[in-house]
Every structure is written in structure tokens, then in C-alpha cells.
Design brief:
Length: 240
């Protein structure tokens, strides 16, 4: 009887603590959900009407490929060179093929698909956690102000993170060639994704790293050939 009374004294307090934690989590989820809605709505709205980085990358892609540009813009690129290494513009063939301003919509859709892929990965990776905790983790990804900015200007980070996730998933599935290809693609912004190659190196993922190196080399040669740099002798002006 005494033991039962002690149990009755202990567990009500424990239940109250659990309810308090749950209420706090629900409050945090509500706040993060509100932030996610505001940030993502603002980011995609700006992406459809502004997209400063998309505009710059679109102009660079056409300069590298020898497309028609305003004389002043072409002269500016010829004077200072382009921002990214040659292999980045090979991936740009897929990203920046639509005309302006339709390319803004296309890049926004790529960012949206990349974000969905990241969210799906986070949700699946935490499948053994309670539902509320999983929602909390997913919203902690979407409620980041930097995500809004990245999507709004049309920069690469969300796409690069999605490619990193894909490379990790492919490696976990025992597909090192696909993992390496995705690692090569993620190098379209090497200053962001390059350090992650050290993880593959330390873990001995040499097949994936070799595939990534082959992709980078092949993409570089391809963009040189497509752009006519090797024939025109203007390599120094384009890649300065």
C-alpha cells in the first residue's frame, strides 16, 4: 500500500513535467512554422521578381558560351573575367538555359526541389524519433533566414546542400559512382562544397573522389570546347 501511494505521488508530477515539455515544443514548432512561412514566402517572392545572382550568372553563362550580350557587359567580363571556375558553367548549361526573365522561375523551381529534397532527408533520417521532434528538426531547416536570402537572390547554397545530401545517400546505398558524380556537381560552388571532400578523403571514398575528379576535368574540357576558348586564344580574358 505504501509503495502504491509513493507511486501515485511521483507520477503525477512526472506527467506534469512531460506535458510542460510538450507544450514548450508545440510553442517552438508554432514559432518555427510561422518563421518558415514568412521566410520562404518572402524568398520565393523575391526570386520571381528580382534574383540578382541569377541575373549575374545568366549573363556570365552567355559570355562564357559566346552568346549575344550588350557590348558594355561583354567588355566588363572581358576585362575582369568570370567569378566561377570553368566546370561550374557546365552545370550552368542545365540551370541557365531559359531566356531572361523566365530563367528566374526555372531557378526558383530548382531551389524549391532542392529544399524539398533536404527536408525529405531530415525527416527520413530522424524516422525513429517522436513525430513532434521530427517536425521540430524539419522546421529548424526551413526557418533559417539565410535560406530566404539564398532563394531570393538565386544563389547556390541550397542546391549545393541538396547535392551533398544526395552524395551521402548514394554512398550509404553503396553507389560510389553516383556519389562521386554528385560530389563533382556540388563543386559548382567550390568555396562552399570543397571542404566536404575532405570527409570523403578521410573515410577512404576513393572511387567517389576519382569520379568527382573525372567529372570536373571532363566538364572543364567540355566548357572550353563549347565556348571556343581553346580555339580563340582568349582564355586569359575569360577565366581571369
Amino acid at each position: 500500500m505504501l509503495e502504491r501511494d509513493e507511486t501515485n505521488l511521483v507520477f503525477p508530477g512526472h506527467d506534469t513535467e512531460k506535458r510542460s515539455v510538450r507544450r514548450f515544443k508545440l510553442l517552438v514548432v508554432a514559432g518555427l512554422a510561422a518563421l518558415s512561412i514568412v521566410y520562404l514566402a518572402r524568398g520565393f517572392f523575391i526570386a520571381f521578381i528580382d534574383s540578382n545572382d541569377v541575373w549575374r550568372r545568366w549573363l556570365e553563362e552567355r559570355f562564357v558560351l559566346g552568346g549575344h550580350l550588350d557590348a558594355q557587359v561583354a567588355a566588363s567580363f572581358a576585362r575582369r573575367g568570370v567569378v566561377y571556375p570553368p566546370w561550374s558553367y557546365f552545370a550552368g548549361l542545365f540551370m541557365f538555359w531559359p531566356p531572361w526573365p523566365q530563367v528566374r522561375v526555372w531557378c526558383a523551381l530548382i531551389n524549391f526541389a532542392s529544399l524539398i529534397w533536404i527536408v525529405r532527408f531530415v525527416a527520413a533520417y530522424t524516422h525513429d524519433h517522436p513525430t513532434l521532434d521530427r517536425i521540430l528538426l524539419v522546421l529548424s531547416v526551413t526557418a533559417i533566414g539565410a535560406t530566404c536570402t539564398t532563394i531570393g537572390v538565386g544563389n547556390y547554397p541550397v542546391i549545393v546542400v541538396a547535392l551533398l545530401v544526395g552524395a551521402f545517400q548514394a554512398e550509404q546505398a553503396g553507389r560510389p559512382i553516383l556519389s562521386g558524380l554528385l560530389m563533382g556537381l556540388e563543386l559548382l560552388k567550390p568555396q562552399l562544397s570543397g571542404p566536404f571532400l575532405l570527409v570523403a578523403l578521410v573515410r577512404g571514398r576513393f572511387r567517389a573522389l576519382t569520379t568527382a575528379a573525372i567529372y570536373v576535368l571532363g566538364a572543364t574540357i567540355a566548357i572550353w570546347v563549347i565556348s571556343g576558348v581553346t580555339q580563340s586564344g582568349c582564355s586569359s580574358s575569360r577565366w581571369a
